[in-house]
Fold each of these.
Amino acid sequence: MKNNHNNYPHSVYSDFLSSGKLLEYLSSRFKPGTELHVICDSNTAKLCFPILKKHINEVYFLNFVAFYEGEKHKNLKTCQTIWSYLSEFGIRKDSLIINLGGGITSDIGGFCASIYLRGIPFINIPTSLMAMVDGSLGGKTGVDLDNLKNILGVINFPEAVFIDAEFLKTLPRREFHSGYNEMIKHGLIADAEYFVHLTDNAFENRISEAIRKSVEIKMNIISEDPFDKGLRRTLNFGHTIGHAIETAFLRFSDKSVLHGEAILLGMIAESYLSELHGILSKNDLDLIIEKLKQRLLKVNFDKNVIDEILQYIMYDKKHSSSQMNFTLLEAPGKAVVNQNVNKKDIRSSLEYVAWLTESNTK
Ligand SMILES: NC(=O)c1ccc[n+]([C@@H]2O[C@H](COP(=O)([O-])OP(=O)(O)OC[C@H]3O[C@@H](n4cnc5c(N)ncnc54)[C@H](O)[C@@H]3O)[C@@H](O)[C@H]2O)c1
Ligand SMILES: [Zn+2]
């Protein structure tokens, strides 16, 4: 599938291993035998690079640089290693970087490519479900600073994104479910029927179809607002609180709560907030919670954690200049941006999540 926006913000191709789209794209730009450079993490170097290499089948020479997987390596130190690699190999502005991995790889790889020589072209080949439906799309790149997520970065679009569900065969189940939560978000903000199908597991054996649907929803939103001035904020649903939860739990270990798991909790909190705010009916809230709570994992949400999460939300909002603006829901499938919410209601929504996780996972 190619989006309809004339290569802007970028093209997305599905099932690229069987359709040959990647080779077609590369051959339009590089002579056979050209050396290309792949950025991956320690897992995708082992599990995904061989698949890509086999596909390229010696038409091009692939070199790679790999960093240790995990959020705690999404920092400037890893970037320095990659920049040194690019400089050692004499990478020029007419080269191409291929980011092969999950959302961390496309965030780091996109950022490194954007800064190096003030920008060299890159493409993303996402290998986690999260990256296929979210992280690799839309041009947001960057790294964390200390324990603050995504605080350094630029918006810079990949030339193209090549997706193939074949890579999911080696993805751990927990990571798969984390990405699936992000797809559920697409349903909640833009398509109620898709939301219901996803939460009823109707796409269990048709994951490529669901990926295409999520990509279409995300790309439609991004192409209306590529530089995050308004509409794109609908994609933030579940993320204001979700990011703060993710940051609070990063302190324990970088796998205690995965991104998509934090976003699930964020979506529950922000749905509750939508009802408190008077824009979502109680019936709709009940329907949403009924569907989402089946996916909850046990998370320890004590009072200290709630206080910490609240602090991170305040910090986040101070730096976004949008005060206490949230993206909330009017109904399943309909998000609204720029809703002003007070701190007391945010606390209530976190207490609700604490109660729900406690009562649901006993
Ligand atoms: N830029 C954006 O718009 C955006 C959007 C969403 C998420 N993100 C960022 O992306 C990150 C989360 O993405 P993620 O969940 O993909 O994290 P990730 O990149 O760490 O991948 C998750 C784990 O799966 C492994 N993995 C990936 N593909 C695999 C495969 N095919 N087989 C086996 N293992 C595989 C990775 O090595 C890692 O251990 C966060 O840092 C988040 O902030 C960015
Ligand atoms: Zn997300």
Amino acid sequence: MKKYLNCPICNEQSFTTHLNCKDYTVSGKEFSISKCDSCGFKFTNPIPQENEIGKYYESEEYISHSNTSKTIIDKLYQAVRKYTIKKKYNLVKKNATAILDVGSGTGEFLSFCKHKGLITKGIEPSDSARNFSIKNYKLDISEEKELDHLEEKSFDVITMWHVLEHVYHLNKRIEQIKRLLKEKGTIVIAVPNCSSYDAGKYQKYWAAYDLPRHLYHFTPNDIKLLMNKHGLKVETILPMHFDSYYVSMLSEKYKNGKGNIFKGFWSGLISNIKATGKNTYSSQIYIIKKQ
Ligand SMILES: [Zn+2]
């Protein structure tokens, strides 16, 4: 395990334990979340070594990197994904010719962009997901180390859909994508929001903590601090309305041992209503530019 000595955002050295949470999807082990006493940022601490994290993704139930539809929740997730791909494309298409998707997974989003005429490039660390997207969609996808070899200022849009919370070397990754972004380009980052209603309601059972795969647990303020630190600025925050339902349903399952679609749906709805106008949605999209 690797223990943080400094806060990944503000570099201060004093933390308190925020929560202890179980890994419900793969290992069943318990992990801790530290909260920085200075800036308030929450991060998983300690974390598995980088060469050991792979085994925490090895699960039939971990569906982010596969396409198997099994449970009702998984099926719902797949159906919503089809719809959201189109919404995501509509968000990025303005003034865009070249797009880089970091953490491109099985490639559905990039494939959609490619069919709409964009020049597409993907980065995906998982061998199986990367190979799937190359074989099935004929996409140009590389391993993470390729980020340092791509030409600087070559992309109008760089997207990271629910990826930044998984990335080792957080600050290095922000610098890498900043180098690749054109001067007037846009970075689009989607991450869960641990200051949402559903996070507060479910506490250690909140499915979007997803320890130890999620290394960071961002609030909107954390994202702003992190971006400012790297000479970037958050221009707009947008909701991801479906995530509150999905996350609440999974959280119900973790809390009570079985899924309760009605309770999960209800909690997701309340979360969305309470977040209206306040940017406290369960997951949010941050539109980021260079300062
Ligand atoms: Zn801090």
